[in-house]
Specification:
alpha+beta; five-stranded mixed beta sheet; two-stranded antiparallel sheet; 11 helices; globular; Swt1-like HEPN domain-containing protein
Length: 343
């Protein structure tokens, strides 16, 4: 099967790495893969919660970009997309950030004293595999047990990111009220205190805008505008059979990307989801959404026909804040129980 002019290589057999390099212990590869999982998701967790807590000042208390960043970017013939300070932070620095803002993270982890004790083993296991030592036969089982201990916490983190809800009535919130004319199927009060989306989708809009809000698990529902712990969860819909040109949309909005937590691309190419810290204030949120709508009108077409593959590829070419449709941050919600780390 071919898609977008590319040959489907999903059935192509790849050589077994252990056969090519037989002296590498299988256990070492498994440990490395699990540590990759753990640290990648720790970075995502710390990034999201600090953005929700502090808005644009999220990295204020983190160490600045390190020499590792400078050395990486100096290799201009081998460019990499990572730009987030957390992508160049050590596991120790990640855990220091979590400890410093423990109230934002305690809902995801075992009690702090137990977590610290378990992490001492994880740190040592990491050092062993990073410095190409054989390690102990219990390294992998202990690492897997740690992943089991935090598995539900990471599931809660990820699913809470896809558990947004509308603010009703819309007049309660400046962002929701201001952007309501752009909503192609707004909520309406059908009976006192009972709301529903009824009627027909307004296809006269080139770009429709739906505004929801997600609450991070460490805060209670309250006033949202300007408050820590909330993210506006905004979806832009290309209306009437149109699709976004993701590449051009991203390039043309690049100047405002630092104010946005994530730009999430869709499988079908007909929507873009933005998550924006409520901490930056309603006026800033409105400006950001309106900028995307303005640019989006010139970057939609009925002839693009993108695919999940192309959207995923585009996401990998951009910094960490652009998320493809295969990333669980894009789709995993509370109605999808699973083992997060498959352990």
């Amino acid at each position: 099967m071919e898609e977008d002019g590319q040959e489907d290589i999903s059935q192509t057999s790849e050589p077994n790495l252990l056969e090519i390099v037989p002296e590498v212990p299988k256990r070492a590869l498994e440990i490395f893969a699990r540590l990759w999982q753990l640290e990648t998701w720790l970075r995502r967790m710390v990034y999201v919660e600090l953005r929700a807590l502090k808005g644009d000042d999220w990295a204020q208390d983190l160490p600045p970009l390190s020499k590792s960043f400078d050395a990486d970017k100096a290799l201009r013939h081998m460019p990499t997309p990572e730009m987030n300070v957390l992508s160049y932070s050590t596991l120790t620095k990640l855990m220091e950030a979590i400890g410093k803002h423990w109230t934002c993270f305690e809902c995801y982890f075992p009690p702090k004293d137990i977590l610290d004790a378990k992490l001492k083993e994880v740190f040592q296991i990491r050092n062993r595999v990073a410095h190409f030592r054989l390690g102990h036969s219990d390294d992998l089982p202990r690492l897997l047990q740690f992943l089991r201990d935090v598995d539900l916490g990471f599931w809660n983190f990820c699913t809470s990111y896809n558990d947004a809800r509308p603010i009703l009535p819309q007049s309660r919130d400046k962002v929701t009220e201001h952007l309501l004319p752009m909503d192609p199927l707004p909520w309406g009060e059908i009976r006192p205190h009972e709301w529903a989306q009824v009627g027909f989708v307004d296809k006269s809009l080139v770009i429709g805008v739906t505004v929801n809000v997600q609450r991070r698990p460490w805060v209670e529902w309250s006033h949202v505008d300007g408050e820590p712990g909330f993210l506006y969860d905004v979806r832009l819909h290309a209306q009437d059979g149109r699709q976004f040109n993701y590449k051009r949309l991203l390039e043309d909005t690049k100047a405002v990307h630092p104010h946005i937590v994530h730009i999430l691309l869709d499988t079908l190419g007909n929507s873009v989801r933005l998550t924006i810290p409520a901490k930056v204030g309603s006026q800033k949120v409105i400006e950001l959404v309106e900028r995307f709508v303005e640019v989006g009108r010139y970057n939609v077409s009925r002839q693009i026909a993108p695919s999940a593959r192309s959207a995923e590829k585009i996401a990998t070419e951009w910094p960490e804040y652009v998320v493809g449709p295969k990333n669980p941050l894009s789709f995993l919600d509370p109605d999808m129980p699973c083992s997060f780390f498959n352990v």
